[in-house]
Every structure is written in C-alpha cells, then in structure tokens.
C-alpha cells in the first residue's frame, strides 16, 4: 500500500472486486450458501450495520431479506458500487463513505453488526471492535467473517475470538470450510465468529 492511502488502495480494487465468487455472489449457489449462513441468525426486520461493506453485496443480500442495512466503507468507489447494486436490486440500503474504525452512527442503534474480511485490515482491530460493539443494542448480535490466508494476511480464529472477548462475554467460532461459500475448495483458515450480547 506504499504511497497510496487506504481509500486509494481499495478504490483501485472496486471495479474488479465482485469477480471473486464470494464477493459478487453472482453464482446462485454461492449466493444461496451465504444466505443460508447469515439469514437464519438474524432477528426479523433487523437493523444491521455492515462495516467495511465494500461493493455492498452482503448488505444487499440482507436488505432483500427485509432487513434495514447501513453500510460504511472508506473507499468511495466501493460505496458507489454498493449504491448502484442496491438500486439495481430495488432495495433501500443506506451507504456512506467513512472510517469503519470510527463508525458514523449512534451507539446502541443496531440489532446486528456485521463485518466480513475487514477487521484484519484495520490498524487497531481491538479498538475498532470496541466501537463496533457499542453500536449494538442490548442483546445485539456480532457477526465477523474473517480468515487467515496463505499470504500471511488476516487474523486467525483464535486471534479474532480473543479480540471479541475483550468486549463481550461470549463468542463462538464456526469454521467456514464449505466450498459452496467460496465457489471452490479452500486451503486456508476461514471462519465466522458469532457473539450474542
Ligand atoms: C476485503 S474487502 C471486504 C468487503 C466486504 N465486506 C465484503 O465482504 O465483500 C475490505 C473492505 O474494507 C474496506 N476498508 C478497509 N479499511 C477501512 C476503513 N478503515 N474503514 C472503512 N472501510 C475500510 C475496503 O475499502 C474494502 O471495501
């Protein structure tokens, strides 16, 4: 990322970001796998904060299921893609350019906080999580999809769970090794951390 800001780095990826099966969810089988992973966990008509929402694929998936989704991302081109996707799908998700490490929303105003493949990229994941947990109403649900990739990037499940337990009394890890989620076999560690308040 030398010489580029974080926003510039991710802006440069926006045009092709959805080409990965789990990013764009254009393959119906992959889309179905993510729907089956996430939707049964959410309360009805939940207010959902999607931190580092990227091109808005998951936000739109949840909005289509009747949830009220707000997404924030540091990269304007990611947000532009998300706004376009919501318009194409005729859903009313809200998207804003901003820093996921300091979310631009009122504390205790969401039922669900979701982050996929974002926490690892933040300079201080523990501090960001403190802010994310504050967004939740009492009893709120934290869902973190993260991974530890063969490139050396990412967070292990144990690292992410330990970060969550700094701010929450409970957190469980579920491996995401079903190839249906990724559109093919995986060899690295991918997982979901679930924490109910
Ligand atoms: C690997 S992508 C994941 C996007 C989306 N969550 C998904 O799963 O499709 C990481 C995203 O985090 C965003 N991001 C990185 N640092 C950020 C920050 N400090 N604040 C907000 N978004 C950030 C990037 O712009 C990018 O869209």
* Strand line-up of the largest beta sheet: 3-2-1-4-5-7-6
Class by helix and strand content?
alpha/beta
Shape: globular
Question: Which spans of ≥5 residues are poorly predicted at pLDDT below 50?
Answer: none
- Approximate strand percentage: 15-25%
Order of helices and strands: HHHEHEHEEHEHEE
Overall strand count: 7
Small ligands present:
S-adenosylmethionine
Give the termini separation.
36 Å
State mean pLDDT (0 to 100 scale).
96
* Sheet having the most strands: 7 strands, mixed
Query: Count the helices. How many?
Result: 7
**What is the multimeric organization of the chains shown?**
single chain
Radius of gyration: 15 Å
- What is the helical fraction, as a range of percent? 25-40%
Q: What does this 3D model show about the protein?
A:
- The model has no long low-confidence stretch (mean pLDDT 96).
- The N and C termini lie far apart (36 Å).
- The radius of gyration is 15 Å and the shape is globular.
- By secondary structure, it is an alpha/beta fold.
- Helix 1 packs parallel to helix 5.
- It is built from seven helices and seven strands.
- A seven-stranded mixed beta sheet has the order 3-2-1-4-5-7-6, sandwiched between helices.
- Helix 4 (57-64) links the parallel strand 1 (47-51) and strand 2 (68-73).
- S-adenosylmethionine binds at residues 6, 10, 23, 52-54, 57-58, 72-75, 78, 99-101, 116-118, 121-122.
């Amino acid at each position: 990322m030398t010489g580029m800001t974080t926003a510039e780095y991710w802006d440069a990826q926006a045009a092709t970001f959805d080409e990965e099966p789990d990013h764009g969810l254009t393959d119906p089988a992959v889309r179905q796998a993510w729907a089956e992973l996430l939707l049964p966990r959410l309360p009805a008509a939940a207010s959902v904060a999607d931190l580092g929402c990227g091109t808005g694929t998951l936000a739109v998936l949840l909005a289509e299921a009747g949830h009220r989704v707000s997404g924030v991302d540091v990269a304007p081109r990611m947000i532009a893609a998300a706004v376009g996707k919501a318009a194409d799908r005729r859903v009313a998700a809200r998207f804003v350019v901003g820093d996921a490490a300091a979310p631009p929303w009122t504390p205790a105003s969401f039922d669900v906080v979701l982050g996929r493949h974002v926490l690892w990229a933040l300079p201080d994941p523990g501090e960001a999580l403190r802010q994310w947990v504050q967004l939740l109403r009492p009893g709120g649900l934290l869902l973190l999809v993260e991974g530890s990739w063969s490139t050396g990037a990412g967070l292990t499940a144990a690292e992410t769970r330990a970060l969550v337990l700094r701010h929450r009394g409970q957190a469980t890890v579920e491996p995401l090794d079903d190839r249906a989620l990724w559109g093919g076999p995986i060899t690295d560690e991918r997982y979901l951390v679930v924490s109910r308040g």
